[in-house]
Amino acid sequence: MAENPMLKFVVTGQSYPDKRPAEARAEDFREIAERFAVPKAEEQAARCSQCGVPYCSVHCPLHNHIPDWLRLTAEGRLREAYELSNATSTMPEICGRICPQDRLCEGNCVIEFSGHGAVTIGSVEKFITDTAWEEGWVEPIRPLPDRGQSVGIIGAGPAGLTAAELLRAQGYEVHVYDRYDRAGGLLTYGIPGFKLEKHVVMRRVQRLKDAGIVFHEGFDVGRDAKLAELRDRHDAMLVATGVYKPRAIKAPGVGAPGVIDALDYLTASNRKSFGDTVPAFDEGALNADGKNIVVIGGGDTAMDCVRTAIRQGAASVKCLYRRDRQNMPGSQNEVKNAEEEGVEFVWLSAPEAFDGTEHVAGVRAIKMRLGAPDASGRRAPEPDHGSEFRLEADLVIKALGFDAEDLPKLFGADDLSVTRWGTLRVDHKTMQTSLDGVFAAGDIVRGASLVVWAIRDGRDVAERMHAYLKTKKAEAAQKERVAA
């Protein structure tokens, strides 16, 4: 009987791809870790226990067939592993890079609970699909015969791109409208290259363009066309804009030059990586070089900002967060990476005011303590009066999260219903908004969330839109028969 290639966790320890030294990786925007070589990937995949209830899959929003493609990897059947991985995810190599595996698949791995250390699922997932691209296994999209119906998608982020791919494969004409000059949304302009190198996103976008999906880049809905005009052009619409309105800080001096929004800062940096001319960066307004930087916030966007500032040559980088390390929303792995690279975390602290009139010069802050749990179950931070302190700052970056823009006003569509949070109100069975044939998915429905959830929503909404369009076509055909 052949030896079982799995269950090696009892003899093989957990291992991630080696990270480059912190001093070296702080010099560039390349990804910080190399991918596994084949024997190492097979070895780590073989640690999977092939448990009866795969909690890794259960806790993955896409319900990827993780134990199955781990086994195929362990057996050296990489092409089959890729095909199985690709069956449930439109962007497996992107999820392998940026998903918070410590909170999802790896954090719920059975052998993690037994003290052996989780299978390094994300790194294996990245390895499988990167290999597939190199070997030419990533096949072009082959659409079914033309259905004679078209779909318009507003937003070229992960939800919009996923829906575009799946609907094009079904034979629909697909048009994607996006305000940016490159598709990808936050994958392109929000996430730094050290987490997701841009060629990884661009090759996905090119695959969609090669399949005949029409991208209208630099297209601002509301300015270039109202939503009603787009509805007239297409048989169904999808709104997948994401949420881009930065949350504000209410404090004296917050309007001073040098107090900036995280997305403006990250977009400028990412544009420079593409070789774009960015005057605000070149003139110093969105550049950390030589400056004392204070980033306010504790999520993944804050981590992206502090680590970008290090790479831009900041004199010092501090992250100010009102809760402690255990209660921060961002990935603990990202905090560790940031600390290795020279970021200082100022826990249990919140800004009270910003010094400087011509330009920001410092942040006046106060220490916080954690009180009783709030409505979300997290202990609410409370100011510790008498503990005020000041941080020098030449540039302050606000990274407190994002809310929805006023889409009814922006799109010129007053009858587009929203929730009290400004997100689009949908029927969760059909994923339709208050407007017939207008669907919505991703962060614009659920609020700021993970890329993997946007992909899941894009997958789900494509299925609902396909059903709607088939019904619409059948009803039109029936009317024609009656009229004849």
Structure description:
This protein has 484 residues and is an alpha/beta fold. The protein folds into three domains: 8-135, Orthogonal Bundle (Fumarate Reductase Iron-sulfur Protein, Chain B, domain 2); 150-244 and 403-483, 3-Layer(bba) Sandwich (FAD/NAD(P)-binding domain), CATH 3.50.50; 250-400, FAD/NAD(P)-binding domain (3-Layer(bba) Sandwich), CATH 3.50.50.60. It contains 19 helices and 15 strands. The protein has a five-stranded parallel beta sheet with strand order 3-2-1-4-15, with helices on both faces. It has a five-stranded parallel beta sheet with strand order 6-13-7-8-9. Strands 10-11-12 form a three-stranded antiparallel beta sheet, with no helix packed on it. Helix 4 (66-74) runs antiparallel to helix 5 (78-88), helix 5 (78-88) packs across helix 8 and helix 15 runs parallel beside helix 16. The longest helix has 33 residues, at 451-483. The model has no long low-confidence stretch (mean pLDDT 95).
Short description:
The protein is of the alpha/beta class and 484 residues long. It is built from 19 helices and 15 strands.
Draw up the topology in text.
Layout: H1 22-25, H2 38-45, H3 55-58, H4 66-74, H5 78-88, H6 92-98, H7 110-113, H8 121-135, E1 150-154, H9 158-169, E2 173-178, H10 186-189, H11 198-210, E3 214-217, H12 227-233, E4 236-239, E5 245-246, E6 259-261, H13 262-273, H14 279-282, E7 292-296, H15 300-311, E8 316-320, H16 332-341, E9 344-346, E10 349-355, E11 362-373, E12 379-392, E13 395-398, E14 402-403, H17 407-410, E15 438-440, H18 443-446, H19 451-483
Parallel strand pairs: 1-2, 1-4, 2-3, 4-15, 6-13, 7-8, 7-13, 8-9
Antiparallel strand pairs: 5-14, 10-11, 11-12
